[in-house]
Every structure is written in C-alpha cells, then in structure tokens.
C-alpha cells in the first residue's frame, strides 16, 4: 500500500510540475473562509487536476497511520521538488498580496463586506429567533410561576381547611364523649325510673290487695261484733236467769228453814237433788256461753288490722306498724303485740300450748306449730328442751331455725329485752339491700335471720348462708358494727343524698350502698356507679375497714389500671371523703409488715380441724363471743359518736381485721 501511495504521489508531482509551468498565480478569496481559489486561466483542467491530486494526497496522508515511515520512503528529489513548489507558491502569494491593486482589494473587501452582511443578517435572524424563544420561555415561565403561586395558595387553603376540620373533629369527639356520658346517665336514670315505676306498681297492687283485705276484715269484724253483741245480750239474759234461779233457791232455802225442825232433814233430802241438778245445769251452761264469748272476742281481736290490744276495738281505725294475723310473720312485731292473747308479764314457763304456738307463728316459725302443739305442754317444755329434742320432737332440722328459737328462749330466761329483737327477718332483707348485698336475701329469708340473730351471727352461720367472699364477710361485719353503735336503730342508715361538701366520717359511716353510688355520681364517676350493685360497699366498710382504700374501690368499679388520671381523681375524692385521720390509719396499715391487700376473689374457707380440737368444740359454749362476726361488747369508736377528732389508732379498735385474728375466719361450717 505504501508503494501505491508513493507511485501515486510521484505521478501527482509530475503532473503538478507540468501544470505549474503554464498556470497563473492563485490569490486568496475571503478572509473569513481562508480558502485558496485558482485564478481564471485558459488551461484550467490541469490546475484542477493538480488540486484534485493534492486533495487525494492529503486524503491518503490523513488515512496513513505510520506517516514517518512513509516520509522516509519518499525519494529526496520528489520531496525537494514539493518543498520548492510549496515555497514558491507562498512567495507568489506574498508577492501577489503586496502588489495587488486597489480595485482588486476593494472588490475583495466588498465581497468580504457582503459575506459579513450576510453573516450579520443570518446572525440577526438567529438572534431574533433566539429572542422569540426567550420571550416564549419567559411567558411560559410566568405562566408556570402563576400556576405555582396559585398552587401554593390552594395548598395553604387546604392546610387551613384541614386544620379547621381537625379542630372540628376534636370538638365532635368531645361532644360525642359528652353525649355518651349523658346517654349513660339517661339510661341509668331511665332504669332507675323504670325500677321505681315497677316498685310503685307493685306497691299500688299490694295496696289494692291490702285495701281489699281490709274491707274483708272489716266485714268479718262487723259480723263478729254483731255476734259479740248477741253473745253479750245472751250472757246478760243468762245472768239474769241465773240471778232469778239463785233468788228462787234462796227462797226455797228460806222456806225450808221456816218449817218444823223435824221435817227439815226429810225436806232437805227431797229438795237437794233438785237444787243440785238445777245449779249444775246452770253452771255448765254459763261456762259454755262464757267460753264461746271469749273465743269470739279472741277471733275479733286477731282479725283486726291494728294491734292486738284489748282496748283497740274501733271499727274504723287502721294503725300502721301493727301486727295482723293474716300477715303472719311478714310484719314486724311491736313491743305490745300479743298482750291481749299472751300476758307478757306472765313468765314464759307458764304459757299454755296455744299461747306458745301463737308465739311461734308470730315469730316466723309457723311451719313447726303442728308438731309443737302435740309436744309442748307449756312454755317450760321449750325452756328445758335441748337442740336434739327440738329436732326430734318439733322437726326443726334447720340449724339457724334452732339458733333463732334458742336465742329467743334465752332472752325469756334472762328477762332482758334487747333492741335487736325488735327487728324481724323482713327488716333484715331490706337491710341487705341497704348494705349492697341483695343476692343473699333468699338465704337470709329462708333461714329467718332477724335482728337478734345478726347480733349473734358467726362465721359458721355466714358460711351456711353461702356467704363465702371475704369482702362480703367484712361488709356484713362492719354493717353489724354500725348497728351496735346505733343501738340497733332500724333507721340508722342514710339512703338519701345530702350536702356533699359537708360530710364527716360520723355521717359517712352510716351511708348505705345507694348513698355511696350517689356520691360517685357527684364526683363525676356516674358511669362506674352501677358496678357497686351487689358489691357490699357501704359507709361502714369504707370507714371501719383499714384495708379498704381507693385502689380497692377502683378495682370494684372496674376502672382499668391504665387510666391513671381517673384513678388519681378517685383517690383524691376518696381521701377527702374518709378524712385525714382515717387516711393516715389506712396508710399505716398498708405499710405494716405482713400486709395483704383486699381483693374481690378472696374466699373464706372452712378450716380443717384435727381430732384434738373436737373436744374443744364440744366444750365451747353456744354464746362464746369469739365466734361472733361482731362481738356484743365491742368498743364504740369516737367517730360513731359524732366526734371527728379521735386518737391515733382508734379505727384499729373497730377494724374487722385488726381487732381480732384473721385466722378465725377460717372455721368449720355451721353447727348442726
């Protein structure tokens, strides 16, 4: 390939030599382009050929990679010729540049000017085009900027609207929560109203029944009064007849005495049978009439709707609180009830069988009257009887019925009237409602638990009554303690709300379960108040039990532990309710060693006794106070007497846990 290029170069050089000899000089055309243009010549074809060859040489050289080796292969003569030719061409160009005419230079400059004008026009068009593009871009930029500004404004408006919507959402959520609380309150109020309506309907129905019964009793009373009047008239006529007969007898006796003494004996022998017969007949008839009159009067008094007093026989009087035979053991006994039938001044041991049976029926043990009528001779029969004889002769298999009878007989033996004996078993069922334990009403009613039995109630009795919760044991214990402190006043518990800002421990200790729920509503905890139904929480438990604190109350109210603010609110109001001294007492007991918190799941289980303890059980007296839920001789706290300032530890003397050993709660079941 190098040889071909060399041969081509030599041929081109030879042709160029021939052309140079007859060609004219070339002049530069255009300063801006710097291109060499051949001058017009007659023989232009060889010049074109030389130029073509030069271009081909240039192209061949540009395509060569090893130019140095190629240059070394060029013959020296050829290279010298080319150099001379090129130098000569440059000399001719310089000469031509120096010797050109003004006309040629002017034409050249005009050509340059035209080319420059053309370039300026082209550049001007380009500048205008670029300016239009710039203006278009600026207008589009302005549009985009306007769109950006409008978008930012819309974004700000959206942010503002979103903020307002969020605030409205929060307001709506608050309103919804308020409405929910209000709805709960309305539902509770509605339920309360429904309950009150049901109670009112029941009371109205019972009132109608009582009115009907009163009308019937009034009719019976009027009938018995008519019979009584007829009987009294008959008695008066018989008495007059008896007086007449007595007068006749006296006349006969006077006539007999006025006769001769000889005939006295024979006359007496003749008249004596007649006299004796007439006298005996009249006596028997008079006794029968008097007995019938007594029975009629007894029935009239028993059917009266008032008490059993002998002087209370007005037909239109209806006294509240009295005893009615048709009600049986359902109504409370009054202190004077039964005196017209049973003389209370008479010792119980001298009571007749009918009096004892009537007393059993009034006392709520009417189911044992039939067997008692067959076994009891007088009141002394019951006083000297043993529990085994009660079970065998009267069929009293219920242990609490035997205890009820034994306590009543013991009061007759001691001749001491206790205030607790005035509270019957119906009052005890209402009392269970007041202390928040209505679930045990059936067991207490079936066992005929009255006020005296509450006073002598034991742990065994509560276990027999199916009260196994430790919290419920403590609730009953504190409630009995409040009864002791108020001398078994049936109206000592406070059920209606008062001034919440002026409460003292002496008032709180008498609060019922419903009153505690009202207090929860007053401290903005109305939605949790229904959880206290059936919990046994009352004022006595809150004040007297040192283990009962705000945490125990929160647990009974089912307030979740994560609601710390709500529990703190409850604790603040609880501490303000019980007072600083009771709060200090509860805190000290909670910080004491061996303290176990009060829970709702703790149970009182019977303690398993060994064989060595049975002899102790046999020797234990029935009235041993160590077995009682609340001893009779328990000390009365100053707080129950209305003294808000009490010494440190005064609650401990009242505490159902501290005053006596807690292990005594784990006893055997009820005694048989």
Automatic annotation (TrEMBL):
Domain SAM stretches: 351-415, 428-486, 511-542
CDD domains to which the protein is assigned, alphabetical: SAM_liprin-beta1_2_repeat1 (cd09563), SAM_liprin-beta1_2_repeat2 (cd09566), SAM_liprin-beta1_2_repeat3 (cd09569)
InterPro entries: LIPB1/2_CC, LIPB1/2_SAM_1, LIPB1/2_SAM_2nd, LIPB1/2_SAM_3rd, Liprin, SAM, SAM/pointed_sf
UniProt keyword list: Coiled coil, Phosphoprotein, Repeat
GO cellular component, one term: presynaptic active zone
Keyword check for Repeat: yes
UniProt entry tagged with the keyword Cytoplasm: no
One Pfam family here: SAM_1
Family: Belongs to the liprin family. Liprin-beta subfamily.
Annotated protein name in UniProt: SAM domain-containing protein
Source species of the chain: Pygocentrus nattereri
């Amino acid at each position: 390939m190098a040889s071909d290029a060399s041969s081509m170069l030599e041929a081109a050089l030879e042709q160029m030599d021939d052309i140079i000899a007859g060609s004219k000089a070339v002049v530069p055309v255009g300063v801006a382009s710097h291109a060499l243009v051949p001058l017009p010549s007659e023989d232009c074809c060889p010049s074109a050929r030389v130029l073509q060859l030069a271009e081909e040489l240039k192209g061949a050289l540009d395509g060569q990679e090893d130019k140095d080796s190629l240059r070394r292969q060029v013959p020296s003569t050829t290279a010298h010729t080319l150099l001379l030719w090129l130098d000569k061409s440059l000399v001719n160009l310089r000469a031509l540049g120096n010797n050109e005419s003004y006309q040629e230079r002017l034409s050249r400059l005009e050509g340059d000017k035209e080319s420059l004008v053309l370039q300026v026009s082209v550049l001007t068009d380009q500048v205008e085009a670029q300016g239009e593009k710039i203006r278009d871009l600026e207008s589009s930029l302005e549009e985009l900027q306007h769109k950006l500004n409008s978008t930012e404004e819309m974004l700000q408006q959206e942010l503002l609207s979103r903020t307002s919507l969020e605030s409205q959402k929060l307001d709506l959520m608050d309103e919804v929560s308020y409405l929910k609380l209000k709805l709960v309150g309305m539902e509770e109020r509605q339920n309360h109203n429904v309950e009150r309506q049901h109670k009112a309907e029941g009371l109205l129905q019972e009132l109608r029944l009582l009115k009907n019964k009163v009308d019937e009793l009034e009719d019976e009373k009027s009938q018995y009064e008519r019979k009584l009047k007829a009987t009294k008239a008959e008695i008066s006529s018989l008495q007059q007849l008896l007086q007449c007969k007595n007068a006749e007898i006296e006349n006969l006796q006077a006539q007999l005495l006025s006769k001769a003494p000889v005939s006295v004996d024979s006359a007496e022998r003749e008249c004596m049978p007649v006299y004796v017969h007439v006298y005996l007949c009249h006596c028997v008839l008079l006794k029968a009439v008097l007995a019938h009159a007594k029975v009629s009067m007894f029935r009239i008094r028993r059917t009266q709707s008032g008490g059993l007093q002998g002087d209370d026989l007005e037909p239109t009087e209806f006294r509240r609180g009295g005893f009615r035979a048709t009600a049986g053991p359902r109504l409370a006994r009054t202190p004077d009830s039964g005196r017209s039938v049973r003389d209370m001044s008479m010792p119980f041991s001298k009571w007749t069988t009918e009096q004892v049976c009537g007393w059993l029926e009034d006392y709520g043990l009417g189911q044992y009257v039939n067997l008692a009528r067959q076994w009891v001779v007088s009141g002394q029969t019951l006083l000297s009887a043993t529990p085994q004889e009660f079970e065998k002769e009267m069929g009293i298999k219920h242990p609490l019925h035997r205890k009820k009878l034994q306590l009543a007989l013991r009061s007759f033996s001691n001749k001491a009237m206790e205030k607790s004996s005035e509270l019957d078993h119906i009052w005890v069922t209402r009392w269970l409602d007041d202390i928040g334990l209505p679930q045990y009403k059936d067991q207490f009613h079936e066992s005929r638990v009255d006020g005296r039995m509450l006073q002598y109630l034991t742990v065994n009795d509560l276990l027999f009554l199916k009260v196994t919760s430790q919290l419920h044991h403590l609730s009953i214990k504190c409630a009995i303690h409040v009864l002791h402190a108020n001398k078994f006043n049936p109206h000592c518990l406070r059920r209606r709300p008062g001034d919440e800002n002026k409460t003292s421990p002496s008032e709180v200790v008498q609060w019922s379960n419903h009153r505690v729920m009202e207090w929860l509503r007053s401290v903005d905890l109305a939605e949790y108040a229904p959880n206290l139904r059936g919990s046994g929480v009352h004022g006595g438990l809150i004040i007297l039990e040192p283990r009962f604190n705000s945490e125990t109350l929160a647990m009974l109210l089912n307030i979740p532990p994560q609601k710390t603010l709500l529990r703190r609110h409850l604790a603040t109001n609880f501490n303000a309710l019980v007072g600083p001294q009771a709060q200090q007492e509860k805190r000290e007991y909670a910080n004491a060693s061996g303290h176990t918190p009060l829970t709702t799941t703790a149970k009182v289980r019977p303690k398993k006794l060994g064989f060595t303890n049975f002899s102790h059980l046999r020797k234990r007296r029935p009235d041993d106070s160590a077995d009682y839920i609340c001893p009779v001789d328990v000390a009365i706290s100053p707080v129950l007497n209305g003294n808000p300032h009490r010494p440190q530890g005064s609650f401990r003397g009242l505490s159902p846990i501290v005053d006596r050993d807690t292990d005594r709660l784990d006893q055997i079941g009820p005694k048989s």
